[in-house]
Structures are given as structure tokens and as C-alpha cells.
Design goal:
Radius of gyration: 13 Å
Number of domains: 1
Number of helices: 5
Strand order of the largest sheet: 1-2-3-4
Strand content: 25-35%
Number of strands: 4
CATH topology: Nuclear Transport Factor 2, Chain: A
Helix content: 40-55%
CATH class: Alpha Beta
């Protein structure tokens, strides 16, 4: 269950990185980009990218640490995961409400497709993963 949660979180973070690199998109594009960036960071087992795509609160919840210690612990946790290809095959729904977004996507990992709901919150002007549920 923890791996599934980590994969969901990672998929969200990947999307944020991709949009940040492009810049200037709409909120909808930014939120969807964050989801794609999380998937990439998860596939790459890239802790720095993944942990930069989630909220500070989620980092602290996942690691049980606070502040910079949470960031370091998060990066070590993700870096220690076995790299596993995760891809967003399609975005099925994106809802925006204030500084929050809910993105529903279909993820593919190990030949299996499954729906994933990503709850995003704007933090420091960028959408970041706040939680992920199947």
C-alpha cells in the first residue's frame, strides 16, 4: 500500500516539473503537468524532483520529520525505491477551485492500468501534490 501511495504521489510531482519548465500555462495545464511530472519522478526514483512536487505538509506526513529534515528524508525514501516505470496514459478530469485542483488520471505501471485521483494545492505559486487516492 505504501508503494502504491508513493507511486501516486510521484506521478503527481512529475507533472508539476514539466509545466514549470514550460512556464506560462493555464492553471489547468499547470495542474495536469504536475501530475505528469510526478509520474516521471516516480519512474526515475528521483527523490529531489519528486519531493519538490509535493506539499511541505505531505513531506512531513510521509516522513514523520519537519522542515529541512522532512525534505532530506523524503528524498532518501524516494531515491531508495526501485525504479518502476509509471506513465500517465490519459487525464480524464481536471477540476479547479481556488488554489486547489483535483486531477483524475489513468496510470500505467507494470502493464496494469488504474485510475488515480491527485489532490493538488498551490504552494509557492506552483501546484504540488497534497494527496493521492485510487
Amino acid at each position: 500500500m505504501r508503494l502504491s501511495r508513493t507511486l501516486g504521489i510521484a506521478a503527481c510531482g512529475l507533472a508539476a516539473l514539466a509545466l514549470g519548465a514550460c512556464g506560462g500555462g493555464s492553471d489547468k495545464e499547470d495542474a495536469e503537468g504536475t501530475v505528469k511530472d510526478i509520474a516521471k519522478a516516480t519512474s526515475d526514483a528521483n527523490g529531489e524532483d519528486f519531493c519538490g512536487l509535493i506539499t511541505k505538509q505531505l513531506r512531513e506526513q510521509l516522513t514523520g520529520s519537519k522542515g529541512d529534515k522532512a525534505k532530506d528524508a523524503c528524498e532518501k525514501l524516494i531515491d531508495s525505491q526501485k525504479s518502476r516505470k509509471v506513465e500517465v496514459t490519459k487525464i480524464t478530469k481536471t477540476e479547479l477551485k481556488g488554489d486547489k485542483a483535483t486531477v483524475t488520471a489513468e496510470l500505467k505501471s507494470q502493464g496494469q492500468k488504474r485510475p488515480q485521483v491527485f489532490e493538488l494545492t498551490k504552494e509557492d505559486g506552483k501546484y504540488r501534490l497534497a494527496s493521492a487516492n485510487q
